Amino acid sequence: MNTILAQSPIFKGLQPTEVENLLGEVPHQIRHFHKDDLLAVAGEEVKAAMILLEGKLQGEMVDFSGNSLKIEELLPPQMVAAGFLFGKNSRFPVNLSAMDDGKMLIILKPNFTRLLSLDNRVLNNFLNIISDKAQFLSRKISFLNFKTIREKIAFFLLQHYKPGFRNIPLKQNQQSLAEMFGVTRPSLARTIGELQREGILEWRRGEIEIKDVEALKKILQ
Asked: What is the pLDDT of residue 179?
């Protein structure tokens, strides 16, 4: 476990033996979960720091009509809801569910505060984590402001585009992207087909080639 934790952003720069020594100073526990378990509900208080050791989680927002939007997927050894651990309204912003069997390290908030005080590296790592999370949520909000699927695709691709590199590696399949965009897979596939026929992009397995950057920018104007 300590080897896995040493690869976690919260323990960046620490050796497994250092992680083991730090955890020996604070009470903690391991929580096991199963696929499709609902681990937290939006609005529920965040009472502990959680680090994913095994499995995969997803944060999902559900509106009053029952429509769901996948906000984020979490893989080991990421922290869970790090940006909502402290503050006046320290509550889960989304439903948290398990996509696979797995387990998490749980450290109650007072004990996690003590952990941060024991090593400045851990404290600085935590500050970087919550800053990165704030930036991610800011980008997500900007993304959700786009109404059409064409706009969502254009924004997504331009976020990842670097001048001189037209091929963008793609980790997600169309179903995962559709969930992230908050649209159906057939609608996404239809729009991708239109963009390909217009010569704006080429969708391949594992990557997207941007053929007309300016056309993508015009979609967002």
From this structure: 75
At 133, list the tokens.
């999370």
Give 165's strand partners: 162
The pair of structure tokens assigned to 214 is: 């300016």
Q: What does the block give as tokens for 120?
A: 């400045």
Q: How far is CA 221 from CA 137, 162, 194, 208, 216, in A?
A: 22, 19, 19, 22, 9
Find out whether 33 and 97 touch, Cβ atoms under 8 Å. no
In whole angstroms, how far apart are CA 99 and each of 8, 31, 145? 20, 15, 27
87 secondary structure, DSSP code? S
Question: Which DSSP helix (H) or strand (E) runs through 84?
Answer: none
Report the candidate in 220, 197, 221, 156 with the shortest Cα–Cα distance to residue 211: 197
Q: Which residue has the tokens 């239109």?
A: 194
Per-position DSSP letters for 183-198, written without gaps between them:
S-HHHHHHHHHHHHHT
pLDDT for 64 equals: 59
Q: Are 128 and 9 in contact (CB under 8 A)?
A: yes
pTM over cut 0.70: no
Pairing of the two strands 167-169 and 38-40: unpaired
CA dist 41 and 91 (Å) reads 9
Q: How many angstroms separate the CA atoms of 73 and 93, rounded?
A: 14
The residues that bridge with 29 in the sheet, in sequence order, are 106
As a whole number, mean pLDDT of residues 135-161 equals 78
Q: What phi, psi does 79 have (nearest 5°)?
A: -80, 150
Share above pLDDT 90 across residues of the chain, in percent, rounded to a whole number = 52
